[in-house]
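Notebook entry, structure prediction.
Reason for the run: the old model in the group folder had no record of what sequence produced it. Starting over properly, with the input documented here first.
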Amino acid sequence: MDIIANIDVLREQVIAWRRLGLSTAFVPTMGNLHDGHLTLVKEAQKYADRVVVSIFVNPMQFNQAADLAAYPRTLDSDCRALQSVDTDLVFTPAPELIYPHGLASQTFIQVPGISEVLEGAHRPGHFNGVSTIVAKLFNLVQPDVALFGEKDFQQLALIRHMVDDLAMPIQIVGVPTVREKSGLAMSSRNGLLTAEERTVAPLLADVMQTIADQVTLDEQANKALVTQATAQLNAAGFNTDAIDIVDADTLALITKNSTTAVVLMAAFLGKARLIDNKVIKLS
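New structure, fully documented this time:
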């Protein structure tokens, strides 16, 4: 496995693969890897001859400097984990390489609509940072296919929209959420949970499933589900941030024409902000 921090060296390797007729799959990450990330790599190997994983803690998508500073950097253990699943190349650029002129003067990509609702409304500018870094990494790696976890539902929708709008010749693959035995969605944020909080955390997925089982086209009934779920989570020790029931295709409110909905969950438990989602068919 090659570990590369230089753009020119990265490009030379990708070009060499292409000359040999080899395809490339790409998995962008911010490091602090868990089994969910490794599942993405294993899935990527089914789609292409070579797999590139990037590890870059992107300052552009953090709203608070303290959150950026606190984000775990675990490069050595991440690389060992990636080597264990036969990753071909790990790209580990420094921030000054990705943003040589600083963030204040950095060209950015904005995906209108999707970037401004739901999670985007709570974290202004966050999705501009996501779309910009993903587009830049796509330009550097030039992959044939890129894989993302479905746990970050809005992020995946944003990237698909961007790729479509900008006519990028990249297949975007969503990979189902990987869960712990308890049902809790795997996340780097789970490392912030105390032992006691870990026993409570699976309730988020349980409540989400309860909502999903009862969602209808009736907006008022759905609001009642959200109110009830919020009270249940908060009583158990969560600080519910947002529960949304929206059209899975548009991320807007469900209408009579909606065929698929998604339940989006976000709640704090101690220091960890946990997210999850469930897509459901509407009859």
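Summary: The chain has a mean pLDDT of 96.
The old model has been moved to the deprecated folder.
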